[in-house]
Amino acid sequence: MVEKYYVTYNQVHKLCQEAAPKILDEFKPSLMIAIGGGGYVPARILRSFLKQPGAPNIPIQAIGLSLYEQLSGSDPVEAPGTKVTRTQWLDLSSLEMANLIGKHVLIVDEVDDTRTTLDYAVKELEKDVETARKEQGRSEKTTFSIFVLHNKDKPKKGQLPAEMLENGRYIAAVTVPDVWICYPWEAQDIDEHDSLAAKKGIKELLAEHR
Ligand SMILES: O=P(O)(O)OC[C@H]1O[C@H](OP(=O)(O)OP(=O)(O)O)[C@H](O)[C@@H]1O
Ligand SMILES: Nc1nc2[nH]cnc2c(=O)[nH]1
């Protein structure tokens, strides 16, 4: 049984805050793509920290990908599926796709576990942007970067482009052991979640590992 560790909204907020200067320095994103559902809250928090005086907010687009299915019963630990399901995607025919061409796009998710989801997202987005670029006869290069709150230190099933990793276009706020992370937006009872976080917090687990 995988052990569960808890993260609070407050900690998520601070992880986004701490990562923002590096993201601004290294990526200068002009657009975020949040992978739902877990990427939505981090992307929204991050937007506030990426906002530059005098510049508009960075737009957030959303895609929905699902790999994990809830097991029967009430236990929140989920079992990985084998196939990524698109529950929501960008409208390939519209301005949405053309909007990505030539941009620095930051893909945001909460956790990189087996990496299957990120592998799928990057490959599919690159493919679709390339199709749109050709269709429109444009030449600008689109670059994708990734931000996750937690990267699990484990063998990955999915892969990211080598040049993305080599060029520092992958940022995880923290790298954690292979445990199950309970996020506050999944909680039915947020007060109970916070008290569990005080006893079994991912932050404390990381401090022990240091
Ligand atoms: O690295 P991986 O093994 O691919 O796992 C990471 C993915 O799993 C979770 O999504 P999930 O499929 O549970 O959907 P949800 O975000 O809607 O809960 C999470 O939000 C990531 O997208
Ligand atoms: N909530 C949650 N979802 C995940 N999806 C893949 N790994 C995890 C995890 O540790 N926690």
From TrEMBL:
Q: What is its EC number?
A: 2.4.2.8
UniProt superkingdom: Eukaryota
Q: What keyword terms does UniProt attach to this protein? A: Coiled coil, Glycosyltransferase, Transferase
Coiled-coil boundaries:
115-142
Q: Which organism is it from?
A: Lithohypha guttulata
- Entry's Gene Ontology molecular function annotations: glycosyltransferase activity
Q: Which residues form the Phosphoribosyltransferase domain?
A: 10-127
Q: What protein am I looking at?
A: Hypoxanthine-guanine phosphoribosyltransferase
For this protein, the record's Pfam families field holds: Pribosyltran
